[in-house]
Amino acid sequence: MANAIIVGMQWGDEGKGKIVDLICPAFDGVVRFQGGHNAGHTVRFADRHFSLHLIPSGILHPEMQCVLGNGMVVAPPAFFAELERLEGAGVRPGGRLFVSDRAHALLPWHVELDQAREAALGAQAIGTTARGIGPAYEAKASRHGLRLGGLGSDRLEQVLAVEHAKVGAEVSALGAPAPTPVAEVVRLCREWAERLDPLLADTEALLAGWVEEGRSVLFEGAQGALLDLDHGTYPYVTSSSSTAGGACTGSGVPPTAIDGTLGVLKAYTTRVGGGPFPTELVDETGEFLRRRGNEFGTTTGRPRRCGWLDTVVARYARRLNGTGALALTKLDVLDELDELRVCTAYDIDGRETRDFPADLARLERARPVYRTVPGWRRDTAGTLELEALPEAARAYVHLIEEEVGARVDLISTGPRREE
Ligand code: GDP
Ligand code: IMO
Ligand code: MG
């Protein structure tokens, strides 16, 4: 049976949650391998609507086993709140939800630091989700972070004192209020340890067992390739590895056990927060996409920046993720447009390039080179056969396949599972 990774091909919010929910019945389990509750994955079916942040979107299928992998940073209050919302909606995660004891705890200090830093950056702010993601990964990389398995440790005070001192010095230099006292965080950790205990597992060993038994695993990426800490538009990125490589380090499953990747590509482009975005539209077409595509953040409610499809970005993401197959989402959002533009190259300082530049300053000077194609001006919502799509819509799909160099295996024309 196959093990596959789902990755976002742009700057997040491509519709990964919907695609995971749609295809996961072909797998035995779903694993999140990076990020935290900065992610917001929306799933709709029939008249139901769910927003998932930490828990894999597979949880909505009653038989699906779900894992929060070691590569994640987990804020226990956000996790418990999500669990309660799911249970309140009739979802039963008992016995099939496992949380890695190696995942790192996201502490109140990380949120305080994230917010103080963003405030201090002013116009240069990254536009983070203000959830403490960067500082939590920083504590992990600095080797004084706290793993979920250590929440009840006897050495808790000692470990936390180091982090408290570091955060305290920085927020004080930034002129922000003093961090939550150590004693309060110790109390919280002990409470969380007790509540999390039944769900904590050595998920690396668990997954190794599944792979050995021939059970198939779907890896649910959060964020998108262009927000990857190494390969994204640094420093306007998140603090984890959101490209396919992250699935191995973030789960403990080796690359030799993984069969392929499926890239989720939105039929146009969006981005939340700061940073370069060559095809951004700050006109009424951008406003039209935002409204028709309901482009407001699942996590923060912020309006998303919108623009034309950028195949320079998608080609780069295809290369990074080794994506042979694409799921194209939100095609229906383009239904009413007379004509569409697709960016196929950048003009940087008078020279045309089809490659995504590593240097942020060059990217900021990039002017998109567009191909203009006719719109279809017909309702595509809920179309289930490729042949039933308007000819201009099929031509748009073929253009994407040609420019990106990957097959479009799935087309989504509405937010619901049925579409
Ligand atoms: P994710 O973070 O990649 O899982 O994506 P989000 O859930 O944050 O954002 C995608 C949004 O688009 C959600 O509100 C989905 O319900 C919605 N959506 C997904 N696929 C489609 C589609 O094909 N058409 C339309 N109109 N909406 C879609
Ligand atoms: P999903 O999984 C879109 C963006 C933030 C900000 C940058 C860093 O729903 O696609 P962070 O809080 O991670 O330190 O913020 O990354 N960002 C996302 N944008 N979708 C997401 O997740 C995102 N997660 C983080 O807006 O620009
Ligand atoms: Mg999202």
Explain what the structure shows.
Helices cover 32% and strands 20% of the residues. It is of the alpha/beta class. A hairpin with a 2-residue loop joins strand 16 (339-348) and strand 17 (351-353). The longest helix is centred in the middle third of the chain and has 18 residues, at 156-173. Bound molecules: guanosine-5'-diphosphate, 6-O-phosphoryl inosine monophosphate and magnesium ion. Magnesium ion (MG) binds next to loops.
Brief synopsis:
With 419 residues, the chain is of the alpha/beta class.
Structural Rg: 21 Å
Largest sheet: 9 strands, parallel
Query: What's the helix count?
Result: 12
Number of strands: 19
**Overall outline:** globular
Task: Identify the quaternary structure here.
Answer: single chain
Output the strand order for the largest sheet.
Answer: 9-7-5-2-10-1-11-15-19
Write the layout of secondary structure elements.
Elements: E1 4-8, H1 16-23, E2 29-32, E3 41-45, E4 48-52, E5 65-68, E6 73-74, H2 76-88, E7 97-100, E8 104-105, H3 108-121, H4 133-141, H5 156-173, H6 182-196, E9 200-201, H7 203-212, E10 217-220, H8 245-249, E11 260-266, E12 269-271, H9 284-292, E13 305-307, E14 309-310, H10 311-321, E15 325-329, E16 339-348, E17 351-353, H11 360-365, E18 367-374, H12 391-404, E19 407-411
Parallel strand pairs: 1-10, 1-11, 2-5, 2-10, 5-7, 6-8, 7-9, 11-15, 14-16, 15-19
Antiparallel strand pairs: 3-4, 12-13, 16-17, 16-18
Helix pairs in contact: 3-4, 3-5, 5-6
The protein binds guanosine-5'-diphosphate, 6-O-phosphoryl inosine monophosphate and magnesium ion (MG).
Guanosine-5'-diphosphate is lined by residues 8, 12-18, 40-42, 44, 294, 298, 329-330, 332-333, 412-415.
